[in-house]
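Comment thread on ticket #2218

A.B. wrote:
> Attaching the input chain for the structure job we discussed in standup.
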Amino acid sequence: MIRAVVDTSVFVSAFIGRPAAAPSQVVAAWRDRRFVLVVSPRLLEELSEVLRRPKFDRWSGEGRGEAYAAAFAARAELHSDPPARAATRDPDDDYLVALARSARADMIVSVDLDLLDAHLSDVAVVSPAEFLARLD
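C.D. wrote:
> Ran it. Output below, let me know if you need it in another format.
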């Protein structure tokens, strides 16, 4: 079974986006247990922090954002946050690469160009649509 680190940007896109869109379909595939989701405390905290931002209030209000993040925490494979080394153009994304490497994930799923353009030799970084194609 594929083991994947899913970037916060995909989770947020799924949370506020259309159910038929690729990010939403990634979350649906996880709910259907079609892949193993690998997370860390930092990834979960980032997701919670983003969903608490005022611009997401209309979607995440009344505890919806907290419940959404808690669902991933409850059923994902939790790993500690390993030390991050420079791997992408954006140092804030390097922890995802370190997590994928330390957890031996097969890939990182992202819509972030800093990750998609990283050209990593040991971990594939794919878009939600490409990830879904690989699941089929």
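A.B. wrote:
> Thanks. Noting for the ticket: The chain has one domain: 3-135.
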